[in-house]
Amino acid sequence: MNQDKTRLHSGIIPLMAISGGVMIANIYYNQPILKEIGASINTSEAAIGRIAMLSQLGFGLGMFFLLPLGDKLKRKRLIIFLAACLALTLTGFAFASTPAQVYVLSFFIGLFSTPAQIILPMAATLDSTNRGKTVGRVFSGILVGILGARVLSGLISEWLGWRYVYGISAMMVSSVAILLKLFLPDVAPKFKGNYFKLLQSTLSLIREYRLLRQAALLGSLTFGVFCSFWTTLTFHLVSAPLHYSPGTIGSFGLIAIGGALVAPYFGKLADKGNTYKSLLITVGLVIGSVILIKIFPYSFVALIVCIFFLDIGVQATQITNFARIYSLHEHAHSRLNTIYMTTYFIGAAIGTYFGLLSWKTGGWNLSTWQMLLWGTAALAVVIISERVNAKHLNRTLVAEETRDFSPPNVVNS
């Protein structure tokens, strides 16, 4: 029986990783092909950049309103239902012909891509001993989806046109939904209250767990850098003197995938309790990468190095954060993930917005300055959080040491 369970789990984890990657990729297909989409519906660069912001905003709202249902409903049914909605929305996007249609459908593509983040906390329940490693494996699949999306969309757009990107994706989402229907285990939910109590319980976690607040803020800042970088990089690479094609721009995602495969190492560090050291390194990589590409904005080698280490830094930070927050409450993984990922993608939307604003105002130079601002703020969160946690631990130890454990005085009658 145990051997069957082991075989089942060894097959489930790769399936969950692939499924999460296929679904979340839809938020990022637009980044290397923004110019092509804009040209086909007769809108400007600045206006079409809203597609990336709206898809991230939709995903962030989906995190808050849909992800908590993973603790109340059967996750398998919820995942398959949302995947079906996503496939239909992608099909509609492939035929969109006006800016309004593109904007609305972009928002719903983000909203219905939430199964990726329902799958992730589900994976965390399979192996509590090596939670960081297990989460790292599934999150790596999600990262490959995020980063491979740029490669796939760039190449398909160059060969067939951008509409085929979304038509092919609709078929891929439908395929993994069928596989999940066949093989994903049906786990009974733990939460028994109604939907409003579920949301109330979710919000209460913010007040209850200081570590959750710290991790969410850190995640939003680093992912803000990441999304700001990739959105403005597209405009930087198509402009003079580089003039790269969509296929070339998308191919840089292959470099980032290499970084994603290295990132799970930091999940092992988190399992060993070395989270502060891990976060200092990962956030340092983010800042160092932005500095490099700022100094050498037109260097091909600097761009490759920047993408590789930026991706390691951002994604390893998220893996470390996931390992930390999933240790807080065994039966509230979806709700913990809700707070973290909602904040995470709000940071993405804000980072994308300010990236576009910076590009419009001051080009690549101003865009990289605002990325450095986000990165510096992230480093400050890591350092300040460690000091706050250390002070709290010291107060707890002092309270334990000074507590009077002697029995109360007994008055003889």
Automatic annotation (TrEMBL):
<keyword id="KW-1133">Transmembrane helix</keyword>
<dbReference type="InterPro" id="IPR011701">
    <property type="entry name" value="MFS"/>
</dbReference>
<feature type="transmembrane region" description="Helical">
    <location>
        <begin position="163"/>
        <end position="184"/>
    </location>
</feature>
<dbReference type="InterPro" id="IPR036259">
    <property type="entry name" value="MFS_trans_sf"/>
</dbReference>
<keyword id="KW-0812">Transmembrane</keyword>
<feature type="transmembrane region" description="Helical">
    <location>
        <begin position="244"/>
        <end position="266"/>
    </location>
</feature>
<dbReference type="InterPro" id="IPR020846">
    <property type="entry name" value="MFS_dom"/>
</dbReference>
<feature type="transmembrane region" description="Helical">
    <location>
        <begin position="278"/>
        <end position="296"/>
    </location>
</feature>
<feature type="transmembrane region" description="Helical">
    <location>
        <begin position="338"/>
        <end position="356"/>
    </location>
</feature>
<feature type="transmembrane region" description="Helical">
    <location>
        <begin position="49"/>
        <end position="67"/>
    </location>
</feature>
<feature type="transmembrane region" description="Helical">
    <location>
        <begin position="302"/>
        <end position="326"/>
    </location>
</feature>
<feature type="transmembrane region" description="Helical">
    <location>
        <begin position="368"/>
        <end position="385"/>
    </location>
</feature>
<feature type="domain" description="Major facilitator superfamily (MFS) profile">
    <location>
        <begin position="12"/>
        <end position="393"/>
    </location>
</feature>
<feature type="transmembrane region" description="Helical">
    <location>
        <begin position="215"/>
        <end position="238"/>
    </location>
</feature>
<keyword id="KW-0472">Membrane</keyword>
<feature type="transmembrane region" description="Helical">
    <location>
        <begin position="79"/>
        <end position="96"/>
    </location>
</feature>
<dbReference type="Pfam" id="PF07690">
    <property type="entry name" value="MFS_1"/>
</dbReference>
<protein>
    <submittedName>
        <fullName>Major facilitator superfamily MFS_1</fullName>
    </submittedName>
</protein>
<feature type="transmembrane region" description="Helical">
    <location>
        <begin position="102"/>
        <end position="126"/>
    </location>
</feature>
<feature type="transmembrane region" description="Helical">
    <location>
        <begin position="12"/>
        <end position="29"/>
    </location>
</feature>
<dbReference type="GO" id="GO:0022857">
    <property type="term" value="F:transmembrane transporter activity"/>
</dbReference>
<feature type="transmembrane region" description="Helical">
    <location>
        <begin position="138"/>
        <end position="157"/>
    </location>
</feature>
